[in-house]
Structures are given as C-alpha cells and as structure tokens.
Amino acid sequence: MPSKFEFNKGKMVPYPSGAIVPDRDLGERPALECIHLGIEFGGLKAVDDFSLTIGKTEIAGLIGPNGAGKTTVFNLLTKVYQPTHGTILLDGEDTSGKSVYQVNRMGIARTFQNIRLFNTMTVEDNVKVGLHNQERYSGFEGVLRLPTYWKHEKAAHERAMELLSIFDMEHLANEQAGSLPYGAQRRLEIVRALATNPKLLLLDEHTAALDPATAEKVLDLTRRVVAESHITCLMVTHNMHQALELGNRTLMMADGHIVLDVAGSERAGMGVDDLIARFKAGAGHELDNDRILLSE
Predict the structure, then answer these.
(1) Of residues 147, 145, 214, 223, the one with CA closest to residue 185
(2) What is the pLDDT of residues 182-216, one digit of tens each?
(3) Contacts by 210-219 with C-beta closer than 8 Å and gap 24+?
(4) CB–CB of 64/256 below 8 Å?
(5) Percentage above 70 pLDDT, the chain
(6) Cα separation, 164 vs 125, whole angstroms
(7) Rounded to whole angstroms, how far apart are CA atoms 276 and 278?
(8) Quick check: 269 pLDDT over 80?
C-alpha cells in the first residue's frame, strides 16, 4: 500500500567530491561525510575504509548481513566508539575528539536495536530528556525554581506534547514508558531522538520485531518527519524490501565497508534478486543465509 506521506525523492546527481546526492542539495554542505573511517578491536577491523557522503534531504537505507559493521558505524558516528582512523564531518564540522553529548548537541540523534527508554519515567519525561540539551536556565535557577525555570519547563511541556502528537501519543504522556506496548515504545524512542532537534537522525532497525501493519505505520511516520522537519535520515534495516522502497538511496555493507551504493533511476528498477546479485559482485562472495534479509 502506498504511503500517504510522500517523500520527494528527487533526482540524484554527482557532488563535486564524486558522491551522489539529491539535486536539491547541490551547493549545500553535505549533512554527513565519512572519509576513510575505520576502527579496530584487538587487530580485528570491524569497520575499514568506510566512506560516505549524504545530502541534507536524504533518507538512505543501510543494509547488510549480521556482522557487516552497520551498528558499529552508528556507534562511530555518535562517538560511542572513537574511530581508529578517518574523519567524520557533520554539516562540514569535524567531530574528532567529541563526546557522545557533544555530537548530540551538534545535531546527531539515534535510536537503538534494543530499545533504551527510562522505563520507570513517564512518556513525557522521556521526551523531556531529549530536550535537555536545549535548556537555557542555570542550575541555581532550577534549584530555586525561579521564573526562568518555570518558563522553560512550560516550553518543554508544550514541545514534548507537540512531538508526541506527531505519533498520536499525546494521550499517553503520563503513562510509564515501560508499560507501553512494544510498538509504542519504538515510536517513543524516535520521538525522544527528535526532541534533540537533530540534523541527522540515525534509526537502528527501528521496525525490528514489529508486525507488518505497525512497521508500515512507523515507516509512514518516518517519511513524514523527515519531509516536514527537513532532516537527514540514515536507517539500518535487515529488510531488503524496506531498503529498496524507503527514501532515495540504498547502501549495502559487508566486511566493514560499503560494497553497494545505488540511488535514483538505477535503484528504481531493482528487486531483491538484483540486490543480492549486486552484493555478490561487490563483496566477492555470496550473501550469508539470513532469512530476515529477504523478509517481506
């Protein structure tokens, strides 16, 4: 069923560096540039020579077999891990030496494979956690509950309810996050990420374990949020059909680096069998038998 939220895929054109970005992003600094990025753990290269440029208005799907390095790339981008070598530029600014908190303030937000909410806190308070990087009052004002504190608390409440309304969750604001159904917890994690006002939204298997109807609803909302908020989205998925249908670009990883990058008209005519064949040509070996990759 086609989405009621239409993401404008646009025409993909070469960027001066040789990367492919939407034509509307020419003349703009890319939202994200990874240049020969890599990390080693005890001599094992988990990510090696990972290079990627993403325009400001893209939704890109990142796919690959288990162990390809997808989540490790997200951990590098968000500084959970510091890269062994290479450079990450967010909107043209080097993130070298930055902490998790600092890159979040620079504009990178993410969700996780395994949901990480504050289960005993309310839904609204979980969203407010994401808003804390935008606080504009001092600890002194907060402790004494001065007028500036109450002004910002009121603004935070209004913003949290606004974000929850995007996912039709405002009626759940006072519920404990841990009591929500699995699908609602997935949506709440995305809302909390959006609360940080990101330039780049990283979604790590955000439809995993959802039934098809709920997964499609979450994907619909992803299209809507990206289109309306004018942010960039990089989405890790194990579903080849999602990777080919969502957004305007599909990336495939193997052995710690990108082996396939297709977009625009080239991607439009591809099916799962084509993707598997292209993976084999790029990786130099067959795709591991992973049933999730072929899921409908």
Answers:
(1) 214
(2) 989 999 999 999 999 999 999 998 888 788 888 88
(3) 210/182, 210/183, 210/186, 211/183, 212/296, 214/183, 216/1, 216/3, 218/183, 218/186, 218/187, 218/190, 219/3, 219/246
(4) no
(5) 82
(6) 11
(7) 5
(8) yes
